[in-house]
Amino acid sequence: MSHHLSRRQILHLATASAAGLGLTACGGGDSGAGSAGADGDSGPITVWSWTTAAEALRGVVPSFERDNPGIKVDVQDLGNPAIWDKITVGLAAGGKGLGDVLHIGVDYLPGYMEKFPQGLADLSRLGADKHKDAFVEGLWPTVIGKDRAVHALPWEVNPLGLFYRSDYFEKADVDPASITSWDDLIAAGPKIRAATGAQLIGLDKPGTTQDVDFFQNLMQLQGAFYFDHEGKVTLASPEAIQALTVIKRINDAGLMADTAGTGTGKRLLSQGKLATAPYPAWAIEYLATKFPAQSGKWRVMQPPAAVPGGKRSAIVNSTYLTVSATSPRRKAAWRFIEYALTKPAEINRMFASGGVFPALKAAYEDPKFSTPNPFYGGQKVLRSFVDSLASGSDATNFTGDYSRALKLASDAQSQVLVKGADPAEALKAAAKQLAQQTGRQQAA
Q1: SS3 of 42, please?
Q2: Lowest mean pLDDT across 107-116, 119-128, 293-302, 391-400
Q3: Residues facing 39 on adjacent strands
Q4: Got the DSSP string for 121-142?
Q5: Which whole number is the average pLDDT over 46-50?
Q6: Of 36, 236, 359, 401, which one is least surrounded by beta carbons within 10 A?
Q7: Residues 260, 205: contact at Cβ < 8 Å?
Q8: Nearest to 109 by CA among 418, 397, 403
């Protein structure tokens, strides 16, 4: 969906700013923020979100207020990236000025719980634990704090897919079913390029926009990331080296377009110069909305494995709703979250209005998840992502130092793509810097 494309681009810029405002500078976090809150179960509550997600939440308000008399909900669209600075500053100030309900991305939630352990309400004591099995596998570990309590509920999940031009594959006589790993796709790349003139993928080679989502995705397909679940640095792990090696092989084979420059990636897609797009589920709507003239030409498959025989499913990002510990109406705020995120009818109403792919498993029983999509030639694209989620994915630990890892990973990728550096050496240097900058140990 389009708001997530822009989010992923500008969030990389916003993260460093937010870190400077709180996640790095105010590491103490143990400010006793929860002591100022109260468990009021009626009255007005404010909900902080952004763009289409905020609009989707507003759609829940009428039915919630009808079923919960005495609670009035004000959903506020704070904009993106402004919301991250406001939440970070509020947490750093002991929770002052925060909304009651906060919409937080997976790239911030672990860092907030790590740096501000008293900043987000304990939802376990309000009954959140009973919903553990209601959401797709791989999300629940993210909501658990060091106190072993639940501090949020999953809302949106974005499983990874590989969108591809089926007309290009057909013209090049490449059977999509034969593509099970990136080895297979790299081998088929020259045929696709010769038949259509299109490159396999596009990346910002010099790293002007920290374009490392694909690198992260290749790690996540292997159950790895910049940090392990203990918070140790894994930027130089075998999985990370394999991910960057795949990227180098695509580039060395002349199968990668350079997307540096504002709007270049979108322009290349519009011109039909990219044969595939390794995007999460939000891109179902994005491609159909931005490139209507290409209707019927796109399909989606499970992402090729990063290593032959490896996993072909990964959750690459997600978002959550949580309650500020300083809220004077924590029970009322929790009731809104529970209502919005655990009722299939409500979650699917939000999905229909805002395109936020739901994390609630019961939502997938709705017929819309098995409906053919004409833009994708009648393929049941939503069902393909649901099936991908059913195979399970590993949780990703972004930590409070994600912005530092992001910068160093981007620099390492650029060294490989622009200067021909060895992936292992570039990542070893980056991992050493990351450990020094954060005080974290490197994993063995």
Answers
A1: coil
A2: 391-400
A3: 329
A4: ---GGGTGGGGGGGB-TTSHHH
A5: 97
A6: 36
A7: yes
A8: 397
Contact (Cβ atoms closer than 8 angstroms) between residue 276 and residue 200: yes
Helices 238-252 and 423-438 cross at an angle (nearest 10°) of 130
Phi and psi, residue 71, nearest 5°? -115, 125
**Could you write out the three-class secondary structure of 399-424?**
CCCHHHHHHHHHHHHHHHHHHCCCHH
CA atoms of 370 and 103, how far apart (whole Å): 28
Q: How far apart are CA 87 and CA 95, in angstroms?
A: 9
Contact 45, 102 (CB under 8 A): no
Nearest residue to 383 via CA among 278, 322, 300, 305: 300
Give the distance, in angstroms, between the CA of residue 255 and the centroid of all CA atoms in the same chain: 26
Contacts of residue 399, defined as CB under 8 A and 6 or more positions apart, other chains included, come to: 110, 111, 114, 226, 227, 231, 405
88: helix, strand or coil: helix
Q: Are 25 and 91 contacting, i.e. CB atoms less than 8 angstroms apart?
A: no
Place of tokens 């044969």: 275
Separation of alpha carbons 427 and 224, rounded Å: 14
Amino acid at 43: G
C-alpha separations of 335 from 61, 64, 144 in Å:
12, 9, 19
Six-digit token string for 103: 């919409």
* Lowest-confidence pick of 34-43, 68-77, 295-304, 356-365: 34-43
| DSSP strand pairing (101-105 vs 315-323) | antiparallel
pTM (2 d.p.)? 0.89
Burial of 237 (0-12, 13-18, 19+ CB in 10 A): buried
- Cis status, amide bond into 344, omega within 30 of 0: no
